[in-house]
Amino acid sequence: MAYGAHVAGRTRWGWLRDRRLGEQELVDRGIRVLEELGRDDPLWPGQLATLAALVLYLALPEALTIGPGWPLPVAETAVLATLVIATRGGREAARRREIAIGLVLVAAVANLLSLSLLTHYLLRGGHVGGADLLDGGVLIWATSLLLFAVLYWELDRGGPRRGAAKRPPVAPDLLFSQMTASRYAAPAWKPGFADYLYVSLTNQTAFSPTDTMPLTPRVKALMGVQGVAALITTGVIVARAVNLLG
Known about the structure:
- By secondary structure, the protein is mainly alpha-helical.
- Helix content is 56%, strand content 3%.
- It has helices spanning 23-28, 44-58, 71-86, 96-123, 130-155, 177-180, 193-206, 217-245, and strands at 39-40, 161-162, 174-175, 213-214.
- The radius of gyration is 19 Å and the shape is globular.
């Protein structure tokens, strides 16, 4: 299937939005079954991953947060709980996806600020035990892994609750290997949360895409930010922590 075509929006801010695929584009891409682009994922894996990331952020030392470390995760947990209640029983809450993406983006920015604070502290010659450095680096690394996985999961193909039979199909943001190796993949294969978690893991450990390629500017930007943050975490913080432990 010709998924590799450029799919960015044509308006100034079009790259931030899902881009709908017209009938002719579906034909040109060789997509004969709309279900190939639809998604109907359960919401609980992403919600659980977001909650786990907030708990990890709460465990960070106060020196690595701007102000007290508890208000942000507590407030975001309240919003997350509201979304869970609103979508219980498989119901679709109005603007659920937009609120969820905004919630995760705020948490991701806060985590990046924690990384910058720790890096700044180290470069200024702060004295701290190697174990403390290692703990802080691992917490930031794990939080980033979960939050970016949720972002990819929420953005790709219009989000986890995007039934192509009910809504116009949108262009995919990620090119999975199963999408090009149709001989070996199940018919009408769809990615699940585990696939997006794997994408986040490989991007964070290799500092670049591996077997899954980004197709849209918004996901390319996210993967770039995640890769740079992981490189800083691993190269500057964890390496120095191991040095101190030795």
